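1st attempt posting a full record on here, be nice pls
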Amino acid sequence: MRLRDALQNSLPADWRGPSSQDSGNSSKIAPELRILDGHHIHGKMKLRRKTLSIVGITIAGLTGILYATSSSILLGSLVKAEEQEATQVVKGVLSVFGQTADDFNSRFADWSAWDDTYAFIQNRNSEFIASNLVPEGLNNLRVNLAIFVNTSGKIVYGTGLDSEKMKLTPVPSALKEHISLGDPLLQHPNANSSLAGILLLPSGPILITSRPIVTTKNTGPIRGTLVFGRNFDAAGIAKLSKITRLPLIVHSINEPHLPADFLKARHKLSAKKPIFVRPVSEDLMAGYALIRDIYDRPALLLRVDMPREIYHQGQTSLMYLLVSVGLAGIGFIGCTLLLIERLVLSRLSSLAKAVNRVSSSQDLSVRLPVRGADELADLAHTINGMLSALAIADSEQLEEKARYQAVVEQATDCIFLWDAQTKRILEANTAFTNLLDYSLDAISQLTVYDIVAYSKDLVERNIQFLLREKQLRIGEVLYLRRDGSCVDVEVSASLISYGGREIICTVVRDITERKQAEAELRASEERYRLLFKNNPHPMWVYDLETLEFIAVNQAAIEHYGYTRDEFLNMTVADIHPPQKMPRLLENISEVDASIDLACVWQHQTKNGTIIDVEITSYALIFDSRNAELVMAHDVTDRLQAEAELYNAKEAAEAANLAKSQFLANMSHELRTPLNAIIGYSEILQEDALDIGEEDFVSDLERIHSAGNHLLGLINDILDLSKIEAGHAELELETFDVFEAIKDVVRTVEPLFFRNNNRLNVECDPNIGQLHSDKTKLTQILFNLLSNAAKFTQQGIVTLSVKKNQNDENSWDVEELIFNCTDTGIGMTPQQLEKLFQPFTQADASTTRKYGGTGLGLAIAQKYSQMLGGEITVNSELGKGSTFTLMLPAQL
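the predicted structure (as tokens):
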């Protein structure tokens, strides 16, 4: 990136010219159109080749419509009754599951409320173990696990039982991970508390019960927790099947090779739809239910098989109707072919060819032909309008960039930018690299501490003053060259802001010659007079009491147009415009002999021209008189250049605002045809599903998916443009953080089933409240979790939430920290650098494999900044990533 691009990106929004990134937008249009065109061509060829199939589908569709109408009249109530009956049966089986867990829990009440157990937790006597916890005793209890835990969360005694070999076994290590004070398994608020249910272990599911250990009279204090477990194996399932008199099949939800019907049922089941029923065959109806573990997480998938008696009653009555309805569909063949060809296929083909011409030529002046007055015509109009607006914006940005480049490249002063936090030099122009004798690559590795010849503490104090005052500072310092030598420079530093960072723009002028002249003047009056006479900058000495000129050099005579005699008969007030006199007199009255003054003034030459000069003045004794030595440097050209920079910034801000408004308007215009496409594709999918034409359904699903994808992209562009245009608003409210996390988890949980991932949530239910925008926080967390699920295969994604607690004397703002950690593909440092840039993903291979638009993280970062926080990321290729969102508790 050239210095002008760095300055442009680092300056505030109202100072910035058109960026290289913005100017490159137009070049990206053609490839984007080419991708869309490819989809259209792909779809067109398939539709053409399947025209004959459409005829058959039309007949089947008409048959399906009549069949659906007849089914709703004749079999509607029967089908509904069949589903209701199947649902009630599944509920009954679930009730048996629940009763089994309750029975298992209640049968160990006398073990947990037992004085012997109460004493064993405290004294750990071996007689209790020998009398009660032998293999035979545990086998009689029909348990495979017994654990005694004290109130510190430590296992006093724990054993497993191999019921086939009748021998004790160690407690599974996976279960030990749950034995902690923060686990619900050990949390019992009172003596009557208990917890029973399924716990999913690597070895298989286990029916487990947890009860507090109290005295036989059921009094406290509670001395620990008693945990019993029974393997939920095939024998247990067979027993439940015998009780319910129905075939039961149970699989673990994390089982790597689930049967196809269980996979489909897992995607259908949710908290809102806990039971899913479907016909398996002509004679069998299957009901599926999700059994949750003791942590209320999905653990087991249950299938109950039931005979379809109601179905057979209605099937016979429809047989004759279907034969007659099938003949009626033949009449629609010609109509269907004509409508598809004239209204859809031919026009889509024409639009696709036109888009392909634009993408191939990469010429924004090419326009699409418009035919008709429907949604496709509106889409063509919208694309043409978008191309026109982009062409105009691209031309304006190129012009602004050319003007901005001329200003920066022709500047004779040294200019460099550095980060106010890291102190690292970001960019520098050629004049600066020549001054310090560094290459561009070498100087980008330095900090301001490396080039300033003063102590780090002194440099830091000056930086803090600049950050605190936030105003232009001009001063003289010593800079270090690459060879270790020093150079005197005059520095103008100003604080700017870009992308949430504080950047300092520094203009440097080499004043080595001037400093040497000043040193020699102080050493010898004769040498001083010689240097004074030959100095290329205008200089003079004036009496502090009378303000009369005492001496002037040749440069002042040539620059101001007065002769030496005229100068010596004048006062310093004669070269200042009248309106500046009060300031001059005030400044002179405050002059101290030990202070050197450097400031910018306006002077008037003999011909009346007003010039801007930078004045450096020194108090001294000249010919036994209190005098002031003044050196003037004409900065009129420099100030004009700064004014041009400001004007360029204003124009760039207007162009950027116009771009955001245009994107917002175009996004709204594109929604109308897209909603129509998505709606019609959904209707066609429903018709195709009714008739069982899965091949045609897959094509329609691709159309529907592509429409939703494009609509999501448009929504993201609209959100991004609102933020950039400053139209995004916050809706602040106070809400419970834990409840908000639960809502996000419920929404994102189905995404983790697709790649066989597991979601862990670590959040204290009593973490407290947050005063912020709940909708935007939810959108940020959903984006982070969905990204983690997408880029992780058969892994673990952990969402942890904690509060940064402050003590009473802390001045820090209380923060909430959200960490989203995955075990996915990870990223390289190069990929991390462009992670939050709009329309940018890690690399081309990531986009091809995982999809996405690159807008999600950019919007999430901007939302987090609106909420007073920031998103940071740590990642290692192949080992996963951790995204951290930090938000203030009060916005």
